[in-house]
Write a structure and sequence with these properties.
Layout lengths: L1 E6 L7 H16 L2 E5 L13 E3 L28 H14 L3 E6 L1 H9 L7 E5 L15 H22 L2 E6 L6 H9 L4 E3 L7 H12 L5 E6 L11 E4 L7 E3 L2 H9 L7 E5 L11 H19 L5 E6 L2 E6 H4 L11 H8 L9
Parallel strand pairs: 1-2, 1-4, 4-5, 5-12, 6-8, 6-11, 7-8
Antiparallel strand pairs: 2-3, 9-10, 12-13
Length: about 350
């Protein structure tokens, strides 16, 4: 069997661990030929496909390394028009690929599902620091991102305390608040603002004013998809032809401008940006990514194509890619972490 492996969408810690696990499992147990596809689906879109053989030695020593040795793209869209789709189909036939292991987020899964139109069989592996893939309670890369944001919050708290400031930290996460929620709790944020709950500006002002009289500083952790009640999302840019053309960002600066006139404290914003994607994966993510890669190889060897590896109820399994394509997993409004946050005095921006 000839198997392609690609990494799509934004990079995240743990991708190389999956590549390593998939490749070694397929070589060791299936005696498969494994080809690494360069830069996500982009490697299949040109007149000449861009691939390289993945041998045992090629993937050794990469478990702990962040990023991806294959390269990735979050703008490559093989479904953008019929000509591109047909070219992908020709490349798949030329390469003799039986199946492609597509490692990526909800966008990559949607593309993998759509490529069945040209006969491309796929097995999916969920990857995102946003933790927003449907039917998967924990994706690799998320734990590392939470650790990065948590450390950043701790560092910012020390300067906020010294200067008696209100410090806003903006996280990634798109339309899901998992990253802001878990890192905000772990980083002892006083206010956590999520895309799932439109925030009331007056409630935040009240918390900051009250803390000016006591601790004299406030830490606010805000997800990039959060917005004030009655207002629109803060969009950084639009990228034409991308499967995900709307890029969020800058809501922390918007909140700073809205808060400053009402407070004595100076208000500062830090947008963490791509530092959340980089660096070596945590041990948790290395183990989870290795498990995901191994299970993906088992699906390939069993001929269970069109499925995505998943973690549900603490167990590794799989679901149909069609069930997760074009969907997102958001924070339920009745989630236990939200109840706990309220009980320990964290403001979620709700109207008082």
């Amino acid at each position: 069997m000839r198997v392609g492996v690609l990494t799509g969408g934004g990079d995240c810690p743990g991708l190389n661990a999956v590549i390593r696990s998939v490749t070694k499992s397929l070589i060791n147990h299936g005696q498969c030929e494994v080809l690494g596809i360069a830069d996500g689906f982009e490697g299949l879109m040109g007149e000449v496909p861009r691939v390289k053989p993945l041998s045992w030695d090629e993937v050794s020593g990469i478990l702990h390394i962040g990023g991806t040795i294959l390269g990735t793209s979050n703008s490559a869209n093989p479904l953008r028009d019929e000509a591109t789709l047909a070219q992908v189909g020709r490349n798949v036939q030329t390469l003799g690929l039986d199946v492609v292991v597509a490692i990526g987020g909800d966008g990559t899964m949607s593309l993998a599902h759509g490529l069945s139109r040209v006969g491309l069989q796929c097995v999916g592996v969920p990857k995102t620091i946003d933790n927003d893939i449907a039917r998967c309670e924990r994706s690799f890369g998320f734990d590392t991102a939470v650790a990065t944001v948590t450390e950043s919050l701790r560092r910012i708290e020390s300067t906020a305390n010294s200067h008696h400031r209100v410090m806003i930290v903006e996280t990634m996460g798109r339309h899901a608040g998992w990253l802001a929620l878990e890192s905000g709790i772990a980083g002892a944020a006083d206010v956590i603002l999520l895309p799932e709950i439109d925030y009331d500006l007056q409630s935040i002002i009240h918390v900051c004013q009250e803390r000016e009289q006591r601790q004299r500083y406030t830490i606010i952790c805000i997800g990039e998809g959060a917005k004030e009640s009655g207002h629109s999302l803060t969009v950084r840019e639009h990228i034409a032809h991308s499967p995900d053309p709307v890029r969020l960002g800058g809501v922390g600066h918007v909140l700073r401008e809205r808060l400053q006139p009402h407070l004595q404290s100076e208000v500062r914003t830090t947008v963490l940006g791509h530092v959340q994607r980089g660096g070596d994966p945590t041990p948790f993510d290395r183990v989870l990514a290795t498990q995901f890669g191994h299970h993906a190889a088992q699906l390939v060897l069993q001929g269970q194509f069109g499925r995505m590896v998943t973690l549900e109820h603490g167990a590794i399994g799989s679901v149909a890619i069609s069930e997760v394509a074009n969907t997102q997993r958001k924070v339920p409004l009745d989630h236990g972490l939200l109840r706990m946050a309220r009980d320990i005095g964290i403001c979620l921006g709700e109207h008082c």
